[in-house]
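Blackboard transcription, Thursday session:
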Amino acid sequence: MDEAKMIEIAEKIKNNTATEEEVLSYTQKIKEIVSEIKADLS
Amino acid sequence: MPNFNAAPKMNFEAEAPKFVTPDDKEGSIINLQIKRNVEDISKDIEVITNIDKNKAAEKLQNPEVKNSFINKVKQLQKYLPALGFGILAVGSAGFIDIDKIESSTFDAMTIADVASIIAPISAMLSIFSGVMAKEIFGKKEQAKV
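(Written on the board underneath:)
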């Protein structure tokens, strides 16, 4: 998923207009990033 | 001969899940996956928050790891503030000093330096986790009304 789409979904979540599929893909991407940060530090 | 007709009839209907349409069922599964993602993120936040700062500083001395770490933090800074709330303040108002991280060699960094880098990242992620939990459970509450 590209950057623009991620930011667009975040704004939709803020405005309570995101679909469940969008929230899922957004949280999936954040989960991957956070997991990689954890791997980098530990 | 046992009289099977006399056996009490089981009423499965009362306990059946209330999946009215296939769409509803799919929606519930997606919601569960979102919930699991947020839970996994929360667990990782806890690990990051309590990470051994000495070990982290040591790992960040590796240029490859350092670049990966910086890129990931930059991604979070792009993706999370759009959610609003406190993330905007914590994530983009200079609390996470990317320049400091980029210019640092890390070998000269103290534990306090590393802690000062990790703390705002943990804070930003914790707020994110809270916002997402509100998103998930808030919708559930709305659905009940």
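Lecturer's comment: Residues 61 and 100 of chain B are 14 Å apart (CA to CA).
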